[in-house]
């Protein structure tokens, strides 16, 4: 494992002039890093204790607009401050930026210094506390899929996001020769992230031209979410530094494969897998069966947190490896949930629903909430699906679009009990904002289809 950067080590590097800038960041609702660049000396002298930000940072859309309808903040309440409390356990160098280190922050109420309940790290921490009260810990891993494009972000933006050309000319799934051509981007991604303390395992070409995948070693959920968020940020910055654009849009073209973010998960107790029973069918303990049954029963409830935008639902197409049914299978990539490591101590479940645009803190938190509900309700797990899940007409389906996912989220008694009404209402409003914004837009498709013919 790569070494962590301690606060004492940071102070020495600052005094030696090796580090002069600290990125002090929170994670917003969209899973992005927001914050400030501190003069390193000021940070180690005093700002390591806390800094402040406007509370609109947890009530914006992708464009950083400030839509109304949020209970937590508004024009009427004046948009006050939140406290950004650096978590010094997350300190790390940022090797792809000269003389720079980074720290992630918890977001606290300015008056009470209590955690802001809808902040992504707080949402995940609450579910981890519930899991701990049951006597378990969790291990999770996320896969990051994305596309690299020939042109830079600025060139693509100035061209109106049209005529997008991937960095490669053909499907590069596991393709060594094609990915060699992309090593000027992918090699620094792997090496810089590892030097930043993130346990990188590998990169590979994915199932489309220009599509890449980054894999990071499993870890405790909070670490996993931190690693995912920093890696996604780094991929964009390193691609930009090399004159290219990296996109985590789940479906950038109707004829191209989408990008996902699968979530591997297992529960542990006293250093041993609580999912593994060597005497049980498939090596699955009763606890694992209850947990998986919870994931399946409540998959529609949590879909918004796995697919948070209008575009997210364009992935879910038959024959694309993006699942549509809430069924499980054994090492079968057509199902929404795949049993991995059958009959081994590494037995785990992979949720294949999530897209590359998910916020990992919220996605993992709601996976845990669904699994915990399965344990508490002692749900029975139905037999594994065999064959093509797309042909299983009896399988319960995940919501087909953002509007349906939003309605399901709003009515979820399970999530309201697990996350709290305040959190559910906050993210339900976030979903509404995305839907309302999309419905105002006249698309190229509508004009081309109806300009003359309608």
Kindly describe this structure.
- With 454 residues, the chain is an alpha+beta fold.
- It folds into two domains: 109 residues, Glutamine synthetase, N-terminal domain (Ubiquitin-like (UB roll)), CATH 3.10.20.70; 295 residues, Creatine Kinase, Chain A, domain 2 (2-Layer Sandwich), CATH 3.30.590.10.
- Helix content is 35%, strand content 19%.
- The chain contains 14 helices and 15 strands.
- The strands form two sheets. Strands 7, 8, 9, 10, 11, 12, 13, 14 and 15 form a nine-stranded mixed sheet that branches. Strands 1, 2, 3, 4, 5 and 6 form a six-stranded mixed sheet that branches.
- A hairpin with a 6-residue loop joins strand 5 and strand 6.
- Helix 3 packs parallel to helix 10 and helix 6 packs across helix 7.
- The mean pLDDT is 93.
